[in-house]
Amino acid sequence: AGFGLLPAESTELVTTLADKVFVKNTAPSRWKVLIAQHESGGLRQIVTKDGNLALTRMTPASEAGIQGPGWVEDVIREFKSTLTYIARFGYNTGEGLDVIVICGDIERQFFDEKALPVTNFMCLKVTDALAAIGAKGISLGEINFGDVLYAAWIGKKRSLAVPVAIPSIQRIMMPRLAARVASGLLVLLLLVM
Q1: Residue 124 has pLDDT above 70, yes or no
Q2: Residues 50, 87 contacting (CB under 8 angstroms)
Q3: C-beta neighbour count of 95 within 10 angstroms
Q4: DSSP 74-132
Q5: How many whole angstroms separate alpha carbon 181 and alpha carbon 160?
Q6: Mean pLDDT across the stretch 140-159?
Q7: How far apart are the first and last CA of the chain?
Q8: HSE of 167 in the Cβ direction (CA atoms, 13 Å)?
Q9: Are 121 and 113 in contact, with CB atoms under 8 Å apart?
Q10: pTM value?
Q11: Cα–chain-centroid distance for residue 128?
Q12: If you average pLDDT over every residue of the chain, what do you get?
């Protein structure tokens, strides 16, 4: 339990999804991007290079909404902006760029992957993305929201990659931790007797 930063905790998620959904017929791409809509309205892009967090962008939803062809146009426009950012970090097309977008079947038909300057591109339904990481989603329907994917991924981890310590919360957690340790010792003592 604790607090973490979603992009830092989801870095391995980006790599894992890309490794599972893209065919290994070429050299692996050094750059990978996961794009998903948050239910709260923001569009998140997590960009990794060689498995390390390179950049994350969170942009507000536009008037086009959170689904349909208008949403696809927003995603493409924001992704093209991201390309300019990663170019400043040294990205060039020879390094390879894999892009995964969490979307429904309706949005998938509006993406023209040939128009995007990427090595590999795939639209995944959130249920397919969950299956790729070994999780399940029940009754998710046709949603673009990646929240459940992030929650499932972080929930599967034993510990946070970059935990954020907040002193006021740590003071609350210490007595709880002491009580759990004391309870464990008491149970062990009872089992020995």
Answers
A1: yes
A2: no
A3: 15
A4: HHHHHHHHHHHHHHHTT--GGG-EEEEEE--HHHHTT--GGGS--SEEEEE-HHHHHHH
A5: 21
A6: 80
A7: 32
A8: 0
A9: yes
A10: 0.81
A11: 14
A12: 85
CB atoms within 10 A of CB 17: 24
Q: Which amino acid is at 96?
A: G
Burial label, 92 (beta-carbon count in 10 A; 0-12, 13-18, 19+): exposed
Place of tokens 């957690």: 173
pLDDT tens profile 60-114: 877 777 777 888 888 899 999 999 999 999 999 889 999 999 988 888 888 887 7
Which residue from 44, 18, 54 is spatially nearest to 133, judged by alpha carbons?
Answer: 18
For 78, the token pair is: 């924001």
Residue 182: how many CA atoms within 13 Å on its side-chain side? Answer: 6
Q: How far apart are CA 23 and CA 28, in angstroms?
A: 10
Identity of the residue numbered 112: D
Distance (Å, whole) CA 161 – CA 90: 25
The confidence score (pLDDT) of residue 82 equals 94
134: three-class secondary structure by DSSP: coil
Cα–Cα distance list, 81 to 57, 85, 168 (Å): 10, 7, 38
